[in-house]
From TrEMBL:
<protein>
    <recommendedName>
        <fullName>Probable hydrogen peroxide-inducible genes activator</fullName>
    </recommendedName>
</protein>
<dbReference type="InterPro" id="IPR036388">
    <property type="entry name" value="WH-like_DNA-bd_sf"/>
</dbReference>
<keyword id="KW-0238">DNA-binding</keyword>
<dbReference type="InterPro" id="IPR005119">
    <property type="entry name" value="LysR_subst-bd"/>
</dbReference>
<dbReference type="InterPro" id="IPR000847">
    <property type="entry name" value="LysR_HTH_N"/>
</dbReference>
<dbReference type="GO" id="GO:0003677">
    <property type="term" value="F:DNA binding"/>
</dbReference>
<keyword id="KW-0804">Transcription</keyword>
<feature type="domain" description="HTH lysR-type">
    <location>
        <begin position="9"/>
        <end position="66"/>
    </location>
</feature>
<keyword id="KW-0805">Transcription regulation</keyword>
<comment type="similarity">
    <text>Belongs to the LysR transcriptional regulatory family.</text>
</comment>
<dbReference type="Pfam" id="PF03466">
    <property type="entry name" value="LysR_substrate"/>
</dbReference>
<dbReference type="GO" id="GO:0003700">
    <property type="term" value="F:DNA-binding transcription factor activity"/>
</dbReference>
<keyword id="KW-0010">Activator</keyword>
<dbReference type="Pfam" id="PF00126">
    <property type="entry name" value="HTH_1"/>
</dbReference>
<dbReference type="InterPro" id="IPR036390">
    <property type="entry name" value="WH_DNA-bd_sf"/>
</dbReference>
<comment type="function">
    <text>Required for the induction the katG gene for catalase. Involved in the response to hydrogen peroxide.</text>
</comment>
<dbReference type="GO" id="GO:0032993">
    <property type="term" value="C:protein-DNA complex"/>
</dbReference>
Length: 291
């Protein structure tokens, strides 16, 4: 922050002095600051050398401030308090834009957002977008929840967990009375595919083994309405069962279906400390839920 008598006074010097003066103990202050006591003593000595005065009287049983120390302490308290207010104000204004194309995984998404906002005081703005990957690449969101195989090499992709797939059909479909469906049976039916963000399509089977008829849609709303209209069946992660997505569809357990990957995608060169903290929190939440 400034240069006095050839010595540079940094924020760490002020924090060290404030802690020792407030706690009247190098031992307790070192523990609070998570540094060693010798390192703390060196920091205080650097500050005193830069100021050219003795701030702390170490001769008594408890560390006490000198007259100069008491004068300086008042200023340091105000500086640190003002800095904290500035940081808090920026955090209140800051936000992480989290993109998603349809239902967020539960309870992972809700737990992650709530814990991150509580710990960082940074708001997570939820942004619904038909193409989450493009939204990240275009800077419309900071990070996106993506499902299935991601081939965008310009993005960094962090795997979180896998979701179980289920089949979904119209209440008017001949399949509506079925309780189970084998994965190998799915290609026998017209398949409704969300080409923008769907996790299941002709690519989900070996060449020549996929469905003969494919009904393409460009977003989740078109996809679910097409299934409800009995234009074909769909395959979707089982989070949809818990969210009552449409009264006109039925869910059917899929035997032998491969799971669907869930990941976070973001620009690899993003210089955003809060984004890195969000990704870390998301990974930690996913790990906690898997245990």
């Amino acid at each position: 922050m400034g240069v006095l008598d050839g010595g540079r006074i940094e924020l760490r010097h002020l924090r060290a002095f404030e802690a020792v003066a407030r706690l009247q103990s190098f031992t307790h202050a070192a523990a609070e600051l998570a540094i060693t006591q010798p390192a703390l003593s060196r920091t205080i000595q650097q500050l005193e050398d830069a100021l050219g005065v003795t701030l702390l009287d170490r001769s008594s049983r408890h560390v006490e401030m000198t007259r100069a120390g008491r004068t300086f302490f008042g200023h340091v308290e105000r500086v640190l308090a003002e800095l904290e207010r500035g940081v808090a104000a920026l955090r209140r204004e800051a936000s992480i834009r989290l993109g998603f194309s349809w239902l967020l995984p539960d309870p992972w998404a809700q737990d992650t957002v709530a814990r991150f906002e509580h710990d960082t005081k940074t708001t997570v703005s939820l942004v619904r977008t038909d193409d989450a990957l493009s939204a990240v690449q275009q800077g419309k969101v900071d990070v996106a929840v993506v499902r299935g195989q991601v081939t965008a090499t310009a993005l960094r992709v962090v795997h979180l967990f896998d979701e179980t797939r289920v089949a979904v059909c119209s209440v008017h479909s001949r399949l509506a009375e079925r309780s189970e469906l084998d994965w190998a049976e799915v290609p026998r039916w017209p398949l409704v595919v969300n080409v923008a963000s769907g996790t299941t399509g002709p690519w989900s089977w070996p060449p020549g083994a996929g469905p003969k008829t494919v009904v393409e849609t460009s977003n989740f709303d078109e996809w679910i309405e097409s299934v409800a209209a009995d234009r074909g069946i769909g395959v979707i992660p089982d989070v949809a069962i818990r969210r009552n997505i449409h009264p006109g569809v039925r869910f059917i357990t899929l035997r032998g279906a491969p799971q669907s990957a869930v990941a976070l995608a973001f620009l690899p060169r993003a210089r955003n400390a809060q984004l890195r903290r969000f990704v870390a929190a998301a990974v930690a939440s996913a790990a906690a839920e898997s245990t």
